[in-house]
Design goal:
Number of strands: 0
Largest sheet: none
Structural class: mainly alpha
Oligomer: single chain
Shape: globular
Helix content: over 70%
CATH topology of the domain at 3-212: Serine Threonine Protein Phosphatase 5, Tetratricopeptide repeat
CATH class of the domain at 3-212: Mainly Alpha
CATH superfamily of the domain at 3-212: Tetratricopeptide repeat domain
C-alpha cells in the first residue's frame, strides 16, 4: 500500500472525522466557537502528519491530543456523550499507533468507566499497567473497577500494591477498610479506616465507614464522633492525566466550568482568576460574573465581590439571586440597612424566593423589628411548612414581639417532637432566660445535652448558652468548664471564646482570659469588645506597647464607634501615666 493509501486508511479509521467529509466530527458539534477552533486546529495537525507519512508516536500523540480535548469537553458537559465517544475512538487509534504510551489505554479506561463499562475499563487499565506498572492512579481505578465487577480479592491485591508504592495512600486504605466491613471484620476495617481519615480528615465517606466499624465493635462514643463528621465527600487523589483534561477546552463557557472545578477543590483564588478570564472572553457572560463574586467572597475578598455584584446588577438589575447574595454580603460586613434593601428587592423580584425571605426575616429580627420579621417567617412557612428552623426562629420573634407564652408553647412542642433539634433547644433556653426563668432554661439545656446526640457545632452552641446561664447564676467554675468544652468542639465560634474570657476575668485569671479573647479575635478581628478587653489586660500587665498596637489595628473595624474611641483614649492615658 503506498503512502497516500495508508494515509487514507488511517483517516477512515479515525472516528474523529476526516476533513474531506466534514469540517468537524459528525458525532459532536461544539457550541462554543473557541472549542470549534481548537478541534479544527488539531484535526488539521492530524491530517498534515498523515499526509506527510508520519507514523508512530508523533501521529499517535496528535490523535491522542484530539481525544483529550473531546474528553475535556465531556467532563465540562456531562451530556456531551458524542464527545466522549469521539474521545474513546481517538484513544483507541492512538493506542494502536503507539503501543508504548500508557496514557492512551489509561484515558480510554477512564472514558469507559464514565459509560459504566467496567469490563472494558479493567482491560484498558491493565493494558496501561503493562506499560507503566507503578502508575498508582491506574492501580486505584482498576481496583475500583474490580469491585464493581464483584472481584474483591483482585481489588484488595491492587490496593495492597498501591500501599507498597505509597504507604499512606488514603483511597487504598479506605478501599481495604470497606472490603473488611463487607466481610464483617470490623476490627480490621477500623484499623485501615483510622489511617485513611488521618491521611484525609475531610473525607466524610471515611468517617461514615469508620463510624459503622466502631458501632459494630460496640463503641458508640467513637461511632458518634465519626458519624458527626460524615458526608458525601470522597477520598481525593492526585491524577494529573485526568485533572488536566477539563482545562484543555477554551472559551468563556469552558472557563466558567473550569472555575467551578476549582471551587469544588476549595481553590477560590484560582477559581476567581478563571471566572475573570471567562468575563474577558465574553463580557456578556452573566453566569461568569455571578460565580466570580461568589469565589471572591470565599477567597476573602468581600470588597471585590461587592464591586462584581454591582457590575452584574448594572448589566441586569432584575437578577434576584444577585440582590440576595449582595444582601448577604452587606450583612456579613455589618451593613444591615444595605442588606435589608437588597434582600427586600430580591423578594420583590422573586416572591417565592424562600431563602431571601428567611434571611430578610433574620436581619429584621436582629435589627429590632420583630413584627416585620414575623411576617417574613410566615411567608417562608407558607412556602415550606416543614422548614423547622424558620418555625423555631418565628417563635423567637414572637417572644421579642411581646408574645412569650405563644413562643414557649411552640418551642416546647418542637423539643418534645424533635429533641435533637439544637436550634429549638437553644431558642427555648433564650426565651426562658429573657423571661427571667433562668433555672428552667438551664434545666432544659442540661436535659437535652444528657439525652440527645448533637453534631459538634450544635453541641458547642448549646454549651455556650449553658455556660452563659451558669455565669448569670454565679457558678463561674462550672461556666468556664462548659465554655471550654464548647471551645474545643467548635474553635471557630468567637462568641464562645469571648464569653469564656469574661468568665475567666471574673475568676481573676487574666492570663487565661487574654488567651480566650485572642482566640475570639483570631476568628473575628472586628469583635471590638474582645479587642478592648485584651488590650486592657495587656496594659495592666505592663505590655502597653502590645496593647496600643492592638488598638491601632482595631481602628479599621471601629472607625466610627464612640465606645471604642473612648475606651482607646482611656487606655492610652493609662499607659502614658505608667
Amino acid at each position: 500500500m503506498n503512502r497516500h493509501c495508508l494515509a487514507g486508511a488511517l483517516l477512515a479509521i479515525l472516528a474523529c472525522g476526516a476533513a474531506e467529509r466534514l469540517p468537524l466530527p459528525s458525532r459532536y458539534e461544539a457550541h462554543d466557537p473557541a472549542v470549534r477552533g481548537q478541534i479544527a486546529n488539531l484535526e488539521r495537525r492530524v491530517r498534515s502528519l498523515e499526509e506527510a507519512g508520519t507514523a508512530g508516536p508523533e501521529l499517535a500523540a496528535a490523535v491522542g491530543e484530539l481525544g483529550r480535548l473531546y474528553h475535556g469537553v465531556q467532563l465540562l458537559d456531562s451530556h456531551a456523550f458524542t464527545a466522549l465517544e469521539a474521545a474513546e475512538d481517538c484513544y483507541r487509534e492512538a493506542q494502536r499507533l503507539d503501543a508504548t504510551d500508557h496514557r492512551w489505554p489509561y484515558l480510554r479506561g477512564f472514558a469507559e468507566v464514565t459509560r459504566g463499562d467496567h469490563e472494558a475499563a479493567a482491560a484498558s487499565y491493565r493494558a496501561a499497567l503493562a506499560i507503566e506498572p507503578d502508575h498508582v492512579p491506574a492501580i486505584q481505578r482498576l481496583a475500583q473497577s474490580e469491585v464493581e465487577r464483584g472481584r474483591p480479592e483482585e481489588a484488595a491485591a491492587l490496593w495492597n500494591r498501591a500501599l507498597e508504592l505509597r504507604p499512606e495512600f488514603a483511597p487504598a486504605l479506605y478501599g481495604l477498610g470497606s472490603l473488611a466491613l463487607d466481610r464483617d471484620d470490623a476490627g480490621t476495617a477500623a484499623g485501615f479506616l483510622e489511617r485513611a481519615v488521618a491521611a484525609e480528615p475531610t473525607a466524610g465517606r471515611g468517617h461514615y465507614a469508620l463510624g459503622l466499624a466502631y458501632r459494630r465493635l460496640g463503641d458508640e462514643d467513637r461511632a458518634a464522633l465519626h458519624f458527626a463528621r460524615a458526608s458525601h465527600t470522597d477520598f481525593p487523589f492526585d491524577d494529573p492525566l485526568v485533572r488536566e483534561l477539563a482545562y484543555l477546552p477554551a472559551g468563556s463557557t469552558a472557563l466558567v466550568q473550569q472555575g467551578l472545578i476549582a471551587v469544588q477543590a476549595g481553590e477560590f483564588a484560582a477559581a476567581a482568576t478563571l471566572f475573570g478570564r471567562a468575563i474577558e472572553a465574553d463580557p456578556t457572560n452573566l453566569e461568569a460574573r455571578k460565580h466570580l463574586a461568589l469565589a471572591q467572597v470565599d477567597a476573602g475578598e468581600p470588597t471585590r465581590a461587592q464591586r462584581t455584584y454591582e457590575e452584574l446588577l448594572g448589566l441586569d438589575p432584575t437578577l434576584a439571586s444577585a440582590h440576595f447574595e449582595l444582601g448577604r454580603l452587606h450583612a456579613g460586613l455589618g451593613r444591615p440597612a444595605e442588606a435589608i434593601e437588597h434582600l427586600t428587592r430580591a423578594t420583590e423580584l422573586a416572591p417565592d424566593y424562600k431563602q431571601a425571605h428567611y434571611q430578610l426575616a433574620l436581619l429584621l429580627e436582629r435589627a429590632g423589628r420583630p413584627v416585620e420579621a414575623l411576617g417574613r417567617y410566615d411567608l417562608v412557612l407558607n412556602l415550606d411548612p416543614a422548614y423547622a428552623e424558620a418555625r423555631t426562629r418565628r417563635a423567637a420573634a414572637l417572644a421579642s414581639s411581646g408574645r412569650p407564652a405563644e413562643a414557649l408553647r411552640i418551642l416546647n412542642a418542637r423539643v418534645v417532637d424533635a429533641p435533637s433539634d439544637a436550634a429549638a433547644v437553644q431558642a427555648l433556653s433564650v426565651v426562658l432566660r429573657q423571661q427571667n426563668r433562668v433555672g428552667e432554661a438551664r434545666a432544659a439545656l442540661e436535659r437535652s445535652l444528657r439525652s440527645s446526640q448533637f453534631a459538634a457545632v450544635d453541641e458547642a452552641r448549646l454549651r455556650t448558652e449553658l455556660g452563659g446561664i451558669l455565669a448569670i447564676e454565679g457558678r463561674l467554675v462550672n461556666a468556664a468548664r462548659e465554655l471550654r468544652t464548647a471551645q474545643q468542639l467548635d474553635p471557630t465560634e468567637p462568641q464562645t471564646s469571648f464569653v469564656l474570657g469574661m468568665v475567666l476575668l471574673d475568676l481573676r485569671r487574666p492570663e487565661e482570659a487574654a488567651r480566650a479573647f485572642a482566640a475570639a479575635l483570631a476568628v473575628r478581628p472586628d469583635l471590638t469588645l474582645a479587642r478592648l478587653r485584651l488590650a486592657a489586660i495587656l496594659a495592666q500587665t505592663d505590655r502597653c506597647e502590645e496593647a496600643l498596637a492592638l488598638l491601632d489595628d482595631g481602628r479599621r473595624f471601629a472607625a466610627n464607634d464612640p465606645v471604642f474611641a473612648q475606651a482607646s483614649q482611656q487606655l492610652r492615658s493609662a499607659c502614658a501615666n505608667r
